[in-house]
Amino acid sequence: MYRNKLILAALSSTLIFGAAAGAGFAAPGDGPRQHAGMGRPGPGAAAFREITYVRMLKQFDTNKDGQISKDEATTGIDKIFAAIDTNKDGSLTPGEIRTHRQTQMQAMRDQRKQEAGKNKDANAAPTAPETADNNDQGRPPRDGHDGHRWMRHGGNFMRASLMMQRIDTDQNGQISKQEAEAAFDKLFARMDRNKDGVISIDDMPDRPLL
Fold this sequence. Notes:
Blueprint: H1 2-22, H2 44-60, E1 68-69, H3 70-84, E2 91-92, H4 94-123, H5 148-167, E3 175-176, H6 177-191, E4 198-199
Antiparallel strand pairs: 1-4, 2-3
């Protein structure tokens, strides 16, 4: 049950942000993209497609045939939408999305604690003090800059706002069920590169392992 909640949490990001990002997929053959203003190469459309495919397989592939049909994807998205729409009014508000995202992050932190505890019991070796939930106190700042973490969070907020605007086509500040479905339809169409009606390994880019 707990594992399923983690999978649902991961896939919720695909609904809220991935569907909107899907509209900006690079065409086949395009190279890596740059994150705006960061000057760093992004993962690109190929990596985004691979990650999304694996996440969809975990939750949407109900018959375990290694591919996701449109019906399977639609059913999965309906469940995710219902999980985020806590007041059941048929729309996702920024507050509901923010609360759900916070729940996601807490679930991931809890999972890391569980895994750390299992490793400790298995290896009988001391582990580092748990400081991740205390604003990373007791650990040197990442990249040597105290403000770097806050810059990263600010960038995530900006991207989330942009994604919200892309899905919220009527600009009323909420994501309706119809808007979410429309955004996901675009994502499915982009993922189904050979247009056979399913998302499978055949739609993934041919890239060397190393």
